[in-house]
Amino acid sequence: MDIETLKKIFKDNPEKSTITFKGKCSVCGVEVVIEVIPSSGGFGLQGGALFEYTPDVYFAKCPNCYKTNTKIKDHYKPKYKCIIVR
Ligand SMILES: [Zn+2]
Fold first, then answer.
1. Residue 32, class by beta-carbon neighbours within 10 Å (0-12 exposed, 13-18 middle, 19+ buried)?
2. How far is the CA of 24 from the centre of ligand 1 (A)?
3. pTM metric for this prediction
4. Is 63 exposed, middle or buried (0-12, 13-18, 19+ CB in 10 A)?
5. Percentage of the chain lying above the pLDDT 90 cut
6. Which residues contact 61 (CB under 8 A, 6 or more apart)?
7. Which residues hold their Cβ within 5 A of ligand 1, which is an ion?
8. Are strands 82-84 and 19-24 parallel, antiparallel or unpaired?
9. Is residue 41 within 8 Å of 7, Cβ to Cβ?
10. From ligand 1's centre to the CA of 28, what distance in Å?
11. Are 60 and 76 in contact (CB under 8 A)?
12. What does the alpha-carbon distance between residue 63 and residue 78 come to, in Å, rounded to a whole number?
């Protein structure tokens, strides 16, 4: 997920200092909870990797699957979506 998208999410949720995403790894299906924490250089992600499928539709990879393959294919259609915990 690019930095502009993350900035926008934080702008849309001004009351939050960290944003939590919840869902399943789109590769292996394991539950993932990803915390996005603003840092001086941008954003830090804990618990996995986040991707944007279409605007406002996000999906995740757990740390193991992300380690195996950090890239996503073009037009990759994720099996599971990830949502922001409100
Ligand atoms: Zn996985």
1. buried
2. 8
3. 0.90
4. middle
5. 84
6. 25, 26, 27, 32, 48, 49, 51
7. 25, 27-28, 62, 65
8. antiparallel
9. no
10. 4
11. no
12. 16
Rounded Cα distance, 42 and 84, in Å:
19
What CA–CA distance (Å, rounded) separates 30 from 39? 27
Convert the pLDDT of each residue in 37-58 to its tens digit: 999 989 999 999 999 999 889 9
Q: Could you report the per-residue pLDDT of 59-86, keeping only the tens digit for each?
A: 999 999 999 999 888 778 899 999 999 8
Q: CA-to-CA distance for 79 and 29, rounded, in angstroms?
A: 8
State both tokens at 48: 């996995």
Ligand 1 centre and the CA of 61: distance in Å?
Answer: 5
CA of 2 to the centre of ligand 1 (A): 20
SS3 label, residue 39: strand
